[in-house]
Amino acid sequence: MYLSLYRRYRPQNFCEIVGQDAAVSLILKAIQKGNIGHAYLFSGPRGSGKTSLARVLAKAVNCIGPEGDYEPCGRCSSCTSIQNGENLDVIEIDGASNNGVDEVRELKSHVNLSPFSSKKKVYIIDEVHMLSISAFNALLKTLEEPPEYVIFVLATTEPHKVPATIRSRCQNVPFHRVSEKVILKHLIEICQQEDRLYEENALKEISRHADGSLRDALSFLEQSFTLEDSKVTTDGISMILGGASYIDIEKAFSITRTSPERSIHLLRSMFSKGASPSHILEYIFLIARNLWLAKTWGKGVLDPLDLTEEEQAFLIREESFWEEKGLLELMEFAVRTIPLTRYGMRTDVLCGMITSMVANAMNSRVQVSGSSQELFTPDSDKVYDAGVREDNISALQKKTVGSPENGNDRSSEGNVLFQTLLQSLLENDIQIYSALITSRVILEEGCVRILFPTDCIGSYGIITAHRNAYSLQNCISDIFHKDLEIIFIMGEREQVLSFPEEPGSFDMVNGPEDTAVEQVSLFPLKGTIGEEDSSQDPSDHIDLSDEEPLQSCDPGLGEVSHMSRLLEDVLSVTKGELLLLDNFETEDDLPETHDNESEQEEV
Questions:
Q1: 344 — phi, psi (to 5°)?
Q2: pTM for this model (two decimals)
Q3: N or C end: fewer C-beta atoms under 10 angstroms in the chain?
Q4: Strand 493-497 to strand 485-490: parallel, antiparallel, or no bridges (unpaired)?
């Protein structure tokens, strides 16, 4: 017979009960000291382990050979019969269906009978708050003075509905919601025992959606096992839960901030997949609350919350783009609207309401304008005397992108996002970072302009190597959530790296089999540095959709300086991993020995 996961993995001793350390410790200490009460009231949310602990208590007080700290052995006849539900001295009663005074009178008639085969008789009354007032009154005297061999365990999810006269006769043991981290750890252990592969984000979404109920989490996991044969995936969990995961709502916040016109379509897509309106509003409230906490008190307040490192990074990255007042209004909107969704509401109306409230919560002072915005200007401390100065930027560059004094706010959204990109490159791709910090970066509508001074030929060569150029383009497009082309400008030259229509339109070879030619700059320099090539119009764009790697320029097309040839040789040998190159040597400054060697080679 097939058993559900929550029945198959029901705790059989105290150490297997997760997330309820206080309740388990209280009961276990009472057994060890012989201070077992005659009546307990287990109160707490659904799926938190109330009935499971009651059964373990019944096994512990009746076990023939307890182990260690009075843990039930699980092998004796008493433990086995209780585990299988066959023990006549452990009686489980459903308070919802046996809530009349007649049922309680029948219970009282059996209480005075001695146990059949066990030391103690244990009565477990589940959902005890469902008993009628007459039934509670009939139970009062028996509950107050039961026989010495009888233990009552009352379990309820709503302790406030239990009369005070009943609560005062019991030892109240509170249960709390199981934390998301504990549920996640338990789900990982079960997947490992079941030999199932899993995505941690998928299990994280289950633990968050379970809302502190371990039984609900196991039910969702079991549905995933049924739906997916090989692996528990985020897509499968999203299908089971009706879409709108926590990560999806985070994306909705980011898209509303960067591309408001797309946010309403994203929300409608979630609703079309079956997402619950109240579920989406709850996640919106949680994200707005977390953003408000991070903005008000900083990163330290996020540590006690059940958040992953990625979720904390999202909040730290986003908090500067939102206003405290707007976030508070968004939380109030979610609280007011959740009850209304239970009575039915058109999804398109709800989409409009959510989009307008989220957009209203944004910080209007950090919005990206449609005009040019300077994302980054080189700092002399970062480029180590790289020589990036205003006089090194050509008149064409100034005319094209405008002057820094155009009123752009350095604390704008684009600048903050680009600083995040620079920090990531510093940690993960030092060669792109080293080349990029010698340039000026300008964000325009649909493109990013990267301006190199005329004396930073090394940085230009590194940044336009095949792998580096496309890697940088993908990183920039990811942080702005849209495809952006990159325009490389150096001197009077301007070359465009268009975004590929298909991700696989350009073969990028990785690993040790890379050849030097594949690392040659996408836009090799022709002629003397800073001199415009007469064979090509500077306004022409290079088509990068061709799968064949671009070759170096033909030296015969024009006079190429010794420095240009030397740079191309170094880039070929190092496969584009040159960090910085100072142009302090010219052809006249080269040692005489180098000229002698060249003359000998010609002879």
A1: 95, 135
A2: 0.58
A3: N
A4: antiparallel
